[in-house]
């Protein structure tokens, strides 16, 4: 669905609501309700993000139009508490779904403030509960309403205490039943275009009502959990007061510390943290190499490197390895030749080959 299709449908629905006659007869109610269902179907199948402005505008327009339909249904007195489901007119049965559809649309509305979200959650809960109570009064779909009745008996839609396996089996049964109803709904829907098939049209509406019953029961469970979460979230006013009373800028960060066994250990080892590195590895090797060169320059004239090493003032093994690495990195030809010769000699003379201990 594109934005242009949505805008056109919104405009046509607004015009239809504005041009509704004050007498509000059944024909006008039917046209308005059909337009609302078409717009709701566009909203449900839309690929637009849920916070899209045009989509949210369509939701609000659809809610207003359905509220107008509810007023018209009440003024026309299409339902009575003294009736049974068999006494309902076929054309009036579908208007029983008005509260359920309004409840589902109110849940789509996006809110920046959590307090507004709570308002729509409570409103949806009222719509779903009213829908289920109407269906209970008309004794519709007793099997699907069983969990709702048990919840009412336990105290105003509170969760029924049951073991996890029973709850899991109940949800699986509800899911399977919902899929069966959706398949049956698609099969019976073409009967709406044939007014003479009143029996199938009536069956289609009852299937639709049962599907909405399962949706309403599931949504009421979700709304109960969402309300608990929203109640535990601090209100905006409390957050502002907390920020004014304890601004973050005035809070000093805590310094980490490590407890030492005694004062002597603290003086020797410090706080227990390792030294912070101040040199890179390259800087360290450069310093070692410079130190080695300076020490070599201070040796006596004519003194070899071996004599300097024996005297303790020359190159140590670590400095010599560093020098070799420096020469290899610069691709020094002499160093490369010596390295190759040394590798060849090690290949010809494996470790331990000369240590025969006079065994021949």
TrEMBL record:
Coiled coil: none annotated. Pfam families: TAP42 (PF04177). GO terms for molecular function: protein phosphatase 2A binding. Gene3D superfamilies: TAP42-like family. One of its GO terms (cellular component) is cytosol. Residues 314-333, 340-350 have a biased composition (Basic and acidic residues). Residues 296-360 are annotated as: Disordered. GO terms for biological process: regulation of dephosphorylation; regulation of signal transduction. PANTHER family: IMMUNOGLOBULIN-BINDING PROTEIN 1. This is Immunoglobulin-binding protein 1. It comes from Caerostris darwini.
